[in-house]
């Protein structure tokens, strides 16, 4: 799942070398913290949050098999 987020984020940003994903796991959930270069945050969020919502939808759909709640947070 982490790799999926990295591939999507690197395709969107100008500084792909600064894309990082930190995984925080608990009993019932997994949180992926996506961090990008400060100038690329707007590109990952998108107009009105559309791109961020799309990334979350793809990750949630791909994580159905894990039986855990999956969230993606964008941190700067």
Task: Explain what you see.
By secondary structure, the protein is of the alpha+beta class. It has one domain: K homology (KH) domain (GMP Synthetase, Chain A, domain 3, 2-Layer Sandwich). Helix content is 38%, strand content 26%. It has three helices and three strands, in the order H-E-E-H-H-E. The chain has helices spanning 2-12, 41-45, 50-62; strands at 20-25, 29-35, 69-75. A three-stranded mixed β-sheet has the order 1-2-3. A hairpin with a 3-residue loop joins strand 1 and strand 2 (29-35). The protein is globular, with a radius of gyration of 12 Å. The two termini are 20 Å apart. The mean pLDDT is 93. Keywords: Cell shape, Cell wall biogenesis/degradation, Chaperone, Cytoplasm, RNA-binding. Belongs to the KhpA RNA-binding protein family. Pfam families: KH_KhpA-B (PF13083). It is found in: Cytoplasm. Its main location: cytoplasm.
What topology does this entry show?
Layout: H1 2-12, E1 20-25, E2 29-35, H2 41-45, H3 50-62, E3 69-75
Parallel strand pairs: 2-3
Antiparallel strand pairs: 1-2
């Amino acid at each position: 799942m982490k790799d999926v987020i990295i591939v999507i984020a690197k395709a969107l940003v100008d500084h792909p070398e600064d894309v990082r994903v930190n995984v925080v796991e608990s009993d019932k959930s997994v949180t992926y913290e996506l961090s990008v270069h400060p100038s690329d945050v707007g590109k990952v969020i998108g107009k009105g949050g559309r791109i961020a919502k799309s990334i979350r939808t793809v990750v949630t759909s791909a994580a159905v098999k894990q039986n855990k709640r999956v969230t993606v947070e964008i941190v700067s």
